[in-house]
Amino acid sequence: MNHHPPRCSVIGFGPGLGHAIARRFAGEGFAVLGLARDPARHAALAAERITLAAADAGDPDSLAAALADGTDVLVYNAYRATMAAPSEIDPAALVADFRVNVAGALAAVQSVLPRMRAQGRGSLIFTGGGLALDPTGWLPAASLAIGKAGLRSLAQTLHAELAPLGIHAGTVTVAGAVAPGTAFDPDRIAEAFLDLHRDPPGAFRAEIIFRG
């Protein structure tokens, strides 16, 4: 009898937090799929348990195709940010950012949820941001703050809907700038993602706020 390793898919894979999350889950025996718009840029980060593939977080069809084989843990780490003061954001840019920051997360969830529902288990984990808690912290990032607030709301409403079904939806809200060698070292934050995934049924947390 063949036993396949559990699968973790990381949308928004890159050399920072995405790679750290992938490494941490691979270290726990997961087969990790790292999804990026241009995976060739990150080819050097592929490893024995980390496979890279192409997906555009702003394109629901692209996400559905990339996630067609299902996953046990979905990590949504993609984001898009237009730097402008809130009164100066182009509405079209705000919509484009929101498409990646929130709608892409929902599209990814909807792609993997049918199988998770059938199995009665699975984890949906989102990379949140401290701007969702304090949107005035950095005014030029107002569009991203709106996106992270929307993502936090999506994560918490999915948590309320899906926890009774044994499916864990939650956010790791990172209240600081991710940088190696700091209190917000990506490897330390990746541990919080694994901790959230490990919550037992009946004790699922909707959020971990990582303050360093």
Automatic annotation (TrEMBL):
Name listed for the protein in its UniProt record: SDR family NAD(P)-dependent oxidoreductase
Matches recorded under InterPro entries: NAD(P)-bd_dom_sf, SDR_fam
Source organism superkingdom: Bacteria
One Pfam family here: adh_short
The species this protein was found in: Roseomonas nitratireducens
